[in-house]
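Q: Hi! First time doing this. I have a protein sequence and I read that you can turn it into a structure. Is that right? Here it is:
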Amino acid sequence: MASSIRQVPVEIRPVTDRDLRRRIAACLLVMPGVDRHGRPDEATTAAIRAGVGALHSVTGMPASAAARYHAEVRRIAAEAGLPAPLISGNLESGIGYSLGRTGTDLPYPRGVGIADDEGLAYRVARRAAEEARAVGYDWTFSPTVDVLTTLRDPILGVRAFGVDSARTAALGAAQVRGFRDGGVLASAKHFPGHGDSVVDSHLGLPVIDRDEAEFEDVHLPPFVAAIAAGVQTIMVGHVVLRRLGEDLPASISPTVNREWLRDRLGFSGVIISDSLRMAAIAARWAPPEAVVRALAAGADVANSKCEADALPALIDAVVASIREGVIDEAQIDASVTRLDTARASLPAAPGPHEAVRLDAPLAWDDPDRARTVDAAESPRAAGEIVVVGEHALAERVHAALNERGRSARLRPERVSTAALERIARDTGGAVLPVMVPPTAVTDAEISSLRDVVAATAALGGVATIVNGVVPAAMFDAHGSAVIVAPAVDAFDICTQAAVDAVADRIIADAP
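A: Yes, that's right. Below is the predicted 3D structure, encoded as structure tokens:
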């Protein structure tokens, strides 16, 4: 793809001062490292002392360990006389999305969309924010306000609300308020909308055939609503909208960042690019050039997601771009001011002791939990249930039923009509198949799902559990109960909230 960075006419002057390097560092996000004691490693410590603006989440830690890590980050920054880097994370189903089984697993946005309740949307976001703040997070890269318009989308899936533009706008705005009231910065993503893509930008570059009416009527309103609700940051995605005159990925497009988002929508908060390590960008530009392109396009934070030891090279590239007149130094200053304003809006950082209560997995016990799965007809099993499925979701459904006193056994094998017939014959139990199709669902996969639903009905099974976003009503003609559970995302991360909602429906509805 032929492209160039827009040249910014500026007065060129020597750029050598240490303060400028710190201001540039404040506009970069890097990945943190952890030493053997659970503290920031040497490279991360150096990045903090250089003034890095944001660190992405650590992973695989209990809440209290992450809280101690974040407290140490703040201590190092204070010792250097610098603002602490913003601790960010993808908290799409709570802190456990990044850290593992710790804190409360919350429903994915699709579960919120199924319930279609702004009060529930707010409660989910507020609880996620309060737990995140207790662990020391400052910034969540949510809510996802992309309007999902195709079942062939390979990456959003359960991470989008999956409802129309107006309802996505309302639910997204409610979550913006919940995150804000819970004490973290929210980020509406992925501007200018990713919900009609059939390419995963982690793996390739989505070129979307979207006209101006579709942009105006479908994909833009949720971002307008998020801004009206006071969203502090917006993440710009890696999508190309050629029918709207854009040949560059939105994340590195001056038109998208400056004209559409700043000028047209009047957004005055922090703009952050989506991860520049995703193949949509990384397959075309090395990290230093990608960072320069994102900042030159108008991002306040270039989301490099490089390891911390890459920070000096990234800063060097931006310094060179200022010397060459590609980036105006005043733009860096404006971005630092926006980041300082966002940071000043946060409540005081908590002490790490507050996170101990979140170390063990906690149940999301909202009274409306059962409404976050999509059901057609009612489960009809009595007696023993035989859960069939090879995915971990089947294991979790099996465990949840037993915890509620239902007699259930697990057959961890691939679901097929032949397997269900054999298992029903061998066990005498009521089968409960659990299926996890790909995020992008093809016609052939829907046909296969329908065959399983029909077989389950013929065998007098409990129901068919299907992960994802396919409407349950697509299957109810078979006369068998179907529960579509938005439990597992495209990265194979499972939320217990959806598992518990499935168990709620089976226990409550079955005779």
